[in-house]
């Protein structure tokens, strides 16, 4: 029932990891419990993204680096622009990490 | 008009991102409640986890939560006001906004009595240390100084902060603002006595002294690339990195801002020249000793090429045992002149960008998603992604579908 742990690197994931780290360091909770929380976070995050979000985006840029390893694509784009409904966000350098959406284990 | 609309829509989007995040938080907390209970952990701790999590989310700017925390309406003070209670509670201040420009530290020393953040009295170790870092990020003493915190901080803060200055530039500005807004008006003038000033001068003067001495060629650090050059003063600062983070910062700024090719190549040439000269000198000696080698010159060729290849690819062709001397002589001059770009630059670019870029650690634009399809045609790439989180320009954007086109 494991999901991708990819989203642990996002702001919300990092916040959760930090919070859990603190509690574990203080000895308030056990590391095992922290791991369980993170796994639950993976599931909840995956589910929320697929059900709660309605936004679509398109982007383009210059591909600086591409990597496909262990079924994970990693792109590094330069001078990229991301277009959402109302606005365009331009960045000079962005890293895109994408796992396979078709893996059923998700 | 359109601006207002855009802002309103952005707020909406931001609100909905916040909503999604909060929903996720609720979901996770509810689902782990049973886990917590089965482990025998109190519900209080679960609530503590939730509030801690939300606090960090707000601090990182991922959500704007007006209700759960005492945040000001203004965007900037959000981490500030949240951090105010944190400051008092000596709580953790993990993810601060990384906004401070490096020039915060390059202000002229004359502007404030201590270029470094104010030195405070010593604080007991532990969680206090973090607020130590916090407070020591403040600028002039006059702006800071509460009765309570001031009694905690001390000189050690200054060196600690010095260390942090080069790295955690960001924290300090926020702290400065916090201090200002906290209205800590009582000066720490008392605390800021001779010691910090001395320390301050010491840092600067030491750095300066090193610069002067090196440029005058009298210092013990040997310059191996010939006469001391004034232009190389920033490079030279590299060799006295340990002197002070200011020199280091300047060096980093130089490297990252303009990325003056000449300067970088200079350092490269110098290093290459040094190493190559050493190797060639060794080779010369070994050459003399091994003149009776039956294998002949080939081994040395290999040796040279193996060695020189690392440093001077274009000279590989010219390199041969008898010509080693020529190379030795011509090495310095060639390095000064028109050496073709060493391919090391290619790798160094990535390393530099990854490690030394000013913005890289702070606003590392990132997209985490799942891919449906990735195709390529010649150099045109197309991909379809789904269920992603984008972190761009310090903002979080979620999407359910994304299409990308890029050129390699």
Quick recap:
Chain B: This is Transcription factor IIA, alpha/beta subunit. The complex is a heterodimer of chains A (106) and B (408). Chain A has 106 residues and is of the alpha+beta class.
Task: Tell me what you see in this structure.
The complex is a heterodimer of chains A (about 110) and B (about 400). Chain A is of the alpha+beta class. Helices cover about 35% and strands about 35% of the residues of chain A. Chain A has helices spanning about 10-25, 30-50, and strands at about 55-70, 70-85, 90-100. Chain A has a 3-stranded antiparallel beta sheet, with no helix packed on it. In chain A, a hairpin with a 4-residue loop joins strand 2 (about 70-85) and strand 3 (about 90-100). The longest helix of chain A is centred in the middle third of the chain and has 21 residues, at about 30-50. Chain A is elongated. Chain A starts with 10 loop residues before the first helix and ends in a 6-residue tail after the last strand. The relative contact order of chain A is 0.15. Chain B is mostly helical and about 400 residues long. Among the domains of chain B are: about 1-65, Helix Hairpins, CATH 1.10.287; about 365-405, TATA box binding Protein, subunit D, domain 2, CATH 2.30.18.10. In chain B, strand 1 (about 365-375) and strand 2 (about 380-390) form a beta hairpin. The longest helix of chain B has about 40 residues, at about 1-40. The two termini of chain B are about 40 Å apart. The interface between A and B is large, with 68 and 68 residues. Chain A: Pfam families: TFIIA_gamma_C, TFIIA_gamma_N. Chain A: This is Transcription initiation factor IIA subunit 2. Chain A: Belongs to the TFIIA subunit 2 family. Chain A: It is found in: Nucleus.
């Amino acid at each position: 029932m494991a999901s991708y742990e990819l989203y642990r690197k996002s702001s919300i994931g990092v916040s959760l990891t930090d919070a859990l780290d603190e509690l574990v360091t203080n000895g308030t909770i056990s590391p095992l419990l922290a791991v369980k929380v993170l796994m639950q976070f993976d599931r909840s995050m995956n589910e929320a993204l697929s059900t709660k979000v309605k936004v679509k985006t398109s982007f383009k840029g210059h591909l600086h680096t591409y990597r496909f390893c262990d079924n994970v694509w990693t792109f590094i784009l330069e001078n990229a622009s991301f277009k959402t409904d109302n606005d365009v966000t331009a960045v000079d350098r962005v890293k895109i990490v994408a796992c396979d959406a078709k893996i059923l284990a998700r | 008009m359109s601006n207002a609309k855009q802002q309103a829509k952005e707020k909406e989007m931001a609100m909905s991102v916040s909503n999604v995040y909060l929903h996720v938080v609720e979901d996770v907390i509810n689902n782990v409640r049973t886990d917590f209970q089965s482990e025998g952990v109190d519900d209080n701790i679960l609530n503590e986890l939730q509030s801690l999590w939300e606090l960090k989310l707000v601090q990182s700017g991922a959500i704007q939560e007006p209700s759960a925390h005492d945040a000001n309406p203004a965007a900037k003070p959000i981490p500030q006001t949240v951090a105010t209670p944190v400051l008092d509670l000596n709580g953790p201040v993990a993810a601060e906004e990384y906004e401070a420009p490096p020039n915060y530290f390059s202000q002229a020393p004359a502007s404030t009595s201590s270029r470094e953040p104010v030195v405070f009295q010593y604080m007991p170790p532990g969680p206090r240390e973090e607020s130590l870092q916090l407070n020591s990020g403040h600028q002039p003493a006059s702006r800071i100084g509460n009765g309570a915190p001031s009694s905690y901080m001390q000189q050690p803060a200054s060196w600690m902060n010095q260390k942090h200055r080069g790295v955690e530039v960001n924290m300090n500005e926020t702290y400065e603002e916090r201090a200002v807004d906290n209205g800590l008006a009582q000066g720490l003038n008392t605390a800021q006595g001779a010691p910090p000033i001395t320390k301050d001068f010491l840092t600067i003067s030491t750095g300066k002294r090193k610069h002067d001495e090196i440029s005058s060629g009298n210092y013990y650090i040997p310059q191996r690339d010939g006469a001391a050059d004034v232009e190389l003063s920033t490079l030279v600062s590299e060799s006295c990195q340990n002197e002070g983070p200011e020199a280091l910062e300047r060096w980093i700024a130089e490297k990252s801002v303009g990325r003056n090719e000449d300067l970088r190549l200079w350092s490269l040439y110098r290093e290459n020249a040094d190493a190559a000269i050493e190797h060639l000198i060794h080779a010369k000696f070994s050459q003399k000793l091994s003149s009776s080698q039956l294998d002949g010159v080939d081994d040395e060729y290999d040796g040279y090429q193996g060695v020189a290849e690392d440093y001077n690819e274009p000279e590989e062709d010219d390199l041969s045992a008898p010509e080693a001397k020529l190379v030795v002589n011509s090495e310095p001059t060639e390095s000064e002149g028109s050496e073709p770009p060493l391919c090391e630059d290619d790798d160094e670019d990535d390393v530099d960008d990854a490690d030394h870029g000013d913005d890289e650690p702070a606003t590392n634009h990132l997209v985490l998603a799942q891919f449906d399809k990735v195709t390529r045609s010649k150099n045109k790439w197309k991909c379809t992604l789904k269920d992603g989180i984008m972190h761009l320009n310090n903002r979080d954007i979620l999407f359910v579908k994304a299409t990308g086109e890029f050129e390699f």
